[in-house]
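Input.
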Amino acid sequence: MRSVRARRAVNVLMTGLCGLALLGALVPLLSLLWLVVSRGAAGLSLTFFTALPTPVGEPGGGVGNALLGTLYLVLLACLIGLPLGIGAGVFLAEQGDGRFGRAVRFTAEVLSGVPSIVVGIVAYTLVVVPMKHFSAIAGAVALALLMVPTLARTTEELVRLVPPSLREASLALGVPRWKTSLRIVLRTAMGGIVTAVLLAVARAAGETAPLLFTALNNQYWNTRPDQPTASLTVQIFNYAISPYEDWHQKAWSAALVLLLLVGGLNLAARLLTRSRLGRAG
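Output.
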C-alpha cells in the first residue's frame, strides 16, 4: 500500500513539474506573440503591403518590395535546394549504406548545425566575390545551402519508412531500380516530403544573417537575379537599428507580417502531417 501511495505521490509531483516547465515555455512565447501583434497591427494597411519604403520623415510607404523580394528569394532557393536535398535523401535511403553514403550523411548532419551567418559567408565567397556585387542569386544559394541538409535527412527517414514489400513487388515485375525509387518509393513518401519542404521554406523565409552578405537590400522593385534584392528580414533589421520612431513602427508591422507568413507555413505543414497520419490510420 505504501508503495502505491509513493508512486502516486511521485506521479503527481512529476506531473506538476512538467506543467510548470510547460508554463515556463509558454509564457515567453505568448508574451513575444502579444508584443509583436499589439505593436505591429497598428501599422498594417493596404499601402503597407504594396508601396515602396519612404525616406526618413516622409509619412506612408510600405514593404511591398521586401515582401516580393522574400518570395522571390525563397522561390529561387527552392529551385536550387529542393532537387539537391530530396535527391540526396533518396540516394541515402536507397544506396547510402556504403562509404560514400556514410560520408554524405555525416556531411549533411554537420551542415545542419552550421550557423546561418557562416553559410552566408560561404555564399559570399562562392558567388558574391566572383560576380563582384550582391545579388538575389547569391541570397538564394545561401538559403538553399540551409535547406539542403534538413531536406536530405528528412527525406531519407521518410523514404526508409516505405514498406520494403512495395520495392520488392515493383522489382519482381521487372521495373528497374531507379524507376522503382522515383515512381513507387518517392511517390509513397511524397506527403511527408511536402511537409518537410514547407518547414524548410519557413526556415529560409525567416533567415536574416546570410542575406546581409549576399542579397543585401534594395529600396526599389527588383526581379532580376543578378541585382541586390530586398527581403523582409533585412528590412526589419535596418528599421530596428535606426533611431527613427516611424521606422520602428514599420519594423514591428513587418515582423508581424513575417510571423504570419512563417506561422502559416508551419500550420500548413502540421495540417498536412495530420491529414497524412489520419489516412495512414
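Residues 2-40 form the longest helix (39 residues).
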